[in-house]
Amino acid sequence: MSKEDPVILMNRVSIGYGDNATVLRNVSLSLKKKSFHFLTGASGTGKTSFLRLLYLGMQHTSGRFTIFGRDISEIAAKERCQLRQRIGVVFQDFNLLDHLTVLENVALPLKVVGESALRREHQAKEILDWVGLGNCFNARPDTLSGGQKQRVAIARAVITRPDILLADEPTGNVDEVIAHKLMGLFYGMHKMGTCVIVATHCRQFVDKFHYNELRIEHGFIVDMNQTQKGMAK
C-alpha cells in the first residue's frame, strides 16, 4: 500500500443481524492514513456495530469492504487475525482481563506480537504514566473505577501504535480534564499516521476539535465534511 491508498474502503456495504434487521445500508467510504473522524448518531443507530465491522468482529452482508488493501470477503481466518493486530480498539465495556494486573493488561498486545518482557514492561509503564495511572501497575481491573478502567483500555489499544484506532465512547467515564488529555493522545496517534475513529455522543468534543464527522442517520452514514463542502459551493 502507498501512503495515499485508503486503509478502509467501502463500496455500498450493508451490515445487519438476520434477514430483516439491516443496521446500516449502502455505506461508501474511503478513509486514509493520518485521518481523524468522529462517529456520531443517536443511541441505537449502529455506531458500535459499525466499529465491530471495522475491527473484523462481524461480517458485512453486502457490498465490498477492503482494509489495508485486502478484500475481507476473500481472506482466510489466519490473515484476518494478522490484520486485527494492526487495529487498536477501545471497547465501551473495556474488555480487560481480571486475572492480569493493569500492567499485564496493557502489555498484552506487545506480548502477542513477540516483544521482549523488558520492552513490554518499559512501554506499558510509560503509557500508563502518561494516562495518570503510574501508581496502579500491580492493581487488578476489578479494583479500579470506571474511569481508571477506561484509561487502561485506551493505553492497551494504543501501545502498539496501530494503523487504525477505534474508540467507542472513550471519554464517557472520565472527567473533563482526563477527557481532554485522552483526546490529546488520540491526536498524537493521528499525527503519527494512524487513522483514528472515535464514536461519541459528546457534541462538545465534536464541535471543539473540528475533525471530520461521520454521522449515522436512518441507517446511512453521512460524511458531514463532504456535505458541508457541497453546501458551500
Architecture overview:
The longest helix has 16 residues, at 176-191. The chain has 8 helices and 10 strands. α3 crosses α4 (117-130) and α3 runs parallel beside α5. Mean pLDDT is 90; it is low at 228-233. It has helices spanning 47-54, 77-84, 102-112, 117-130, 146-158, 176-191, 203-209, 224-232; strands at residues 6-16, 22-32, 36-40, 62-67, 70-71, 87-90, 164-168, 195-199, 212-217, 220-223. It has a 6-stranded mixed beta sheet, with helices on both faces. The radius of gyration is 18 Å and the shape is globular. It has 233 residues and is of the alpha/beta class. The chain has a domain at 98-160.
Strand content: 25-35%
How many runs of DSSP E, i.e. beta strands? 10
- The quaternary organization reads as single chain
Proportion in helices = 25-40%
* Radius of gyration based on Cα positions: 18 Å
Q: Sheet bearing the most strands, described?
A: 6 strands, mixed
- What class would the helix/strand composition place it in? alpha/beta
Helix and strand sequence: EEEHEEHEHHHEHEHEEH
List unreliable stretches of 5+ residues.
Answer: 228-233
Termini separation: 33 Å
Widest sheet, order of strands = 6-7-8-3-9-10
**Average pLDDT number:** 90
**Count of helices?**
8
Which of globular, elongated, flat, extended, rod-shaped describes the shape? globular
